[in-house]
Each structure stands twice: as structure tokens, then as C-alpha cells.
Amino acid sequence: MKYFDAHCHIQFDAYDADREELIASMIEQEVGGLVVGVDYASSEKAISLAEQHDSLFASVGLHPNDTLEEVFDMNVFRTLASHPKVLAIGECGLDNFRPEDVDLSKPKQREVFEQHVQLAIETDKPLMIHSRPSKGTQDAYHDLIDILGSYKREHGERLHGDIHFFVGGVEEARSLIELGFTLSYTAVLTFTHDYDEVVRFAPLTSLLSETDSPYVAPPPNRGSRNDPRAVRAVVRAMAEIRSEDPEMVRSQILSNAERVFGPALRGAK
Ligand SMILES: [Zn+2]
User: Fold this and answer.
1) At what angle do helices 139-155 and 170-178 cross, to 10 degrees?
2) How far does the centroid of ligand 1 lie from the alpha carbon of residue 226, in Å?
3) Torsion-angle region of residue 161: left (phi > 0), alpha (psi -120 to 50) or beta?
4) What is the CA radius of gyration of the chain?
5) 137: domain range?
6) How far, in Å, from the CA of 86 to the mean position of ligand 1?
7) How confident is the model at residue 101 (pLDDT cuts 50, 70, 90)?
8) Is a pLDDT exceeding 70 seen at residue 179?
9) Distance 146 CA to ligand 1 centre (A)
10) 145: Cβ contacts below 8 Å, ≥ 6 apart
11) How many A from CA of 188 to the centre of ligand 1?
12) How far is the CA of 8 from the centre of ligand 1 (A)?
């Protein structure tokens, strides 16, 4: 494996027609991936894909935008999390952008997120966090930093993970890195300069690559279905933005993933 997509959803229906061909092509291009669940059913599907393929792993959780539709049963997710190919807990977190009624959804989102944090600490697995502020603010990151900070004081190194699709600024990045979290970026880096400052600010050891497939395809495929092979373009963009050697960046980002998700990645083809 040369590249690791730290956040993809290739268990989604969008891949039903050609999933096995896609995975074969990922293997050929030496791209592995963490298949991230957003609810119980997609977490189970992620595990089943990971069982069938050496270079795929799973993350299990309930997306903050689904917390009013589905009950998060910690016991059920604890059982899922005990599978050896489950390397992370999530996606979970706080979303102030999407819910129609944020005030209604906030308390439930927070309650369910904290259950994920507790499960991650208990199982000593990293968190896969989705955090999206309301328009023009960093509100969800500030709440997130508060919550993670209080768990950090009690649990230290046992609390760790990745902030997926990071859209915060330098200040939020600094706090989250201090809390021991990595920041991951998608192919947005290939078509906007909005995140260049943070990508340059962060130590290379605090960055991960991801695609969030099927979302955010890089040009020339913008708007169509994305897939984890685009992670190569993400890593290239990071090297370019940071003016660093592409091969050095590729190899460091891969070892970051091994550090965050554990030695299981190293053995994967
Ligand atoms: Zn996602």
C-alpha cells in the first residue's frame, strides 16, 4: 500500500454496480482505505467489505445528522467495534450546518458524540470526527475543542483520532493538534486555495489524506461520483501547497495513518 484514504464510503449504494472492479483498481494503484459507517447498517457493511479485502478497514459510528433518526445503542456498537478490522469509532461529531433546526438537534448530537468518545476511550481506538460549523463561524469546532479538552484532561493519550474534512482555521487547527488529533483533507485542495494556510501551518505529521468518496471528486470529474483513487491527487496537492517533495509527503502521510489507525495497516498489501 502506498496511499491510505482515511475516510471513504465505498459501502454506499453508489458503488453497487461496480464495487469489486473499483476495489481491484484500488489494489492495483496501491490505495488502501478506511470505510466509514454513518449508521448501523453502513457500519456493518463497512466491516463486511473489510473482511473481504486485505487493504480495506472499517470505522463504525452514527453520523451527527442521523442522531435524531436512529438510536445510538452503545452496546450494539461496542460489539461492532470489537471486530479486528474496525480501526476507528465514527463518523461522529457535531454538525451545525446541515440540520434544519440546529437548536433541536444540538443536545442529541452532543449526547451521541460523547458516547462515541467514551467508546473510543474504552476500546483505545481513534475517533473519526465530523465537525461542521454554521456558515461564517467556527462554532462547531469551538464546542468540539471544549468537549475533547475535558476528556483529554481525564484520559490523556487514550483520547486521539482524526478530524475529517477539516474546514477550520489556523487557531482551531492548533488546538486540535495540541489535543493529539490529525486533520484530514480531501480533493477540495485541488480546486480551492481556502485551506492552503492551514495545510502549510500544520506539521506534516499531523495531516492525513482522505477522499470522502462518493463526495468531492477532483477536476475534471467534479460533480460526479468520487472514489478513493483520488487520494493520490490529494497527497500531490498537499506536497504542492507545502512546497515539499511529493514522495517524502506521500510516505509521511502513510506513516501518519499507521500511527493513528495502528499497526494493522502496515501488514496490508
Ligand atoms: Zn463521511
Assistant:
1) 20
2) 12
3) left
4) 17
5) 3-267
6) 16
7) confident
8) yes
9) 22
10) 172, 175, 176, 179
11) 14
12) 6
Distance 14 CA to ligand 1 centre (A): 14
Determine the distance separating the centroid of ligand 1 and the alpha carbon of 94, expressed in angstroms. Answer: 13
The answer to whether residues 39 and 66 touch, using CB atoms and an 8 Å cutoff, is: yes
H-run or E-run covering 251: helix 246-261
Residue corresponding to grid cell 493529539: 180
Under 8 Å CB-to-CB from 227, ≥6 apart: which residues?
8, 10, 15, 22, 26, 211, 213, 214
* Nearest-angstrom CA–CA distance, 143 and 16: 37
The structural domain count of the chain equals: 1
Separation of CA 36 and ligand 1 centre (Å): 7
Q: Compute the distance from residue 89 Cα to the ligand 1 centre, in Å.
A: 12
Amino acid at the residue 252: Q
Cβ neighbors of 156 (< 8 A, separation 6 or more) are: none
Around Cβ 30, how many Cβ atoms within 10 Å?
Answer: 14
Inform me whether the pLDDT recorded for 156 exceeds 80.
Answer: yes
CATH number at residue 233: 3.20.20.140
pLDDT at 204 over 70: yes
Q: What is the mean pLDDT of residues 44-49?
A: 98
For ligand 1, the distance from its centroid to the CA atom of residue 212, given in whole angstroms, is 5
Closest Cα to residue 116, out of 156, 67, 83? 67
Tell me the per-residue pLDDT of 212-225, one tens digit each, with 9 for 90 and over.
Answer: 999 999 988 888 99
Distance 168 CA to ligand 1 centre (A): 17
Cα 91 to middle of ligand 1, angstroms: 6
